[in-house]
Amino acid sequence: MIEEQEPLPDVPEPDEPYRRPVDMMNLPQVEAELRDLFGGAVMYLLIPIFLLALSTTTIVATPFFVRVLPAAAIVFIGYWVLQKAYLPMFHEAPETALQYLRVVSWLGGGIMSTPHERVLSLCARRARFKECDAP
User: Fold this and answer.
1) Which domain holds residue 35?
2) Under 8 Å CB-to-CB from 121, ≥6 apart: which residues?
3) What is the pTM of this model?
4) Residue in 80, 79, 93, 77 with CA at minimum distance from that of residue 44
């Protein structure tokens, strides 16, 4: 027979932040979070890719599925390419990547549930670490 379980006590979970405060993070932690946020920001490039693909296929064909399916395929290919390319882009030009991250975060009001203020403080913390490392 199946036994009934006792209901769990109605105790709220502690309201602790799931991310460390920026002031307590070291350079590798800051860089790892910025790299992850940049990966999310790069995915925002799929929106103009989709709109561009949709507008170019609209010129060629008029039925709905004939113009949306190629645009969706281009977005999935673009997603795959961006997933493979974002890490080398971040390593080759980190300052440009962080500038792009700040702009996308400002325009979108944040990235991946990260508020714009946290992105700015992460970038500032990274800059302070880099200033200390510079001879």
Assistant:
1) 25-133
2) 22
3) 0.71
4) 79
Phi, psi dihedral angles at 114 (to 5 degrees): -105, 120
At 78-116, the pLDDT tens digits run: 888 888 888 898 899 999 999 999 999 999 888 878 899
What is the per-residue pLDDT for 53? 78
Q: Where are the beta strands (DSSP E) in 16-71?
A: none
Closest CA to 101 of 48, 33, 55: 33
Is 15 within a domain? no
CB 19 within 8 A of CB 36: no
Structure tokens at 35: 């790299």
Residue 8 lies in a domain: no
Give yes or no for a contact between 20 and 29, defined as CB atoms under 8 angstroms apart: yes
Supply 15's token pair. 């309201």
Count up the domains in the chain and report the number.
1
Cα–Cα distance, 36 to 122 (Å, whole number): 12
What is the model's pLDDT at position 8? Answer: 64
Residue 127 has pLDDT above 90, yes or no: yes
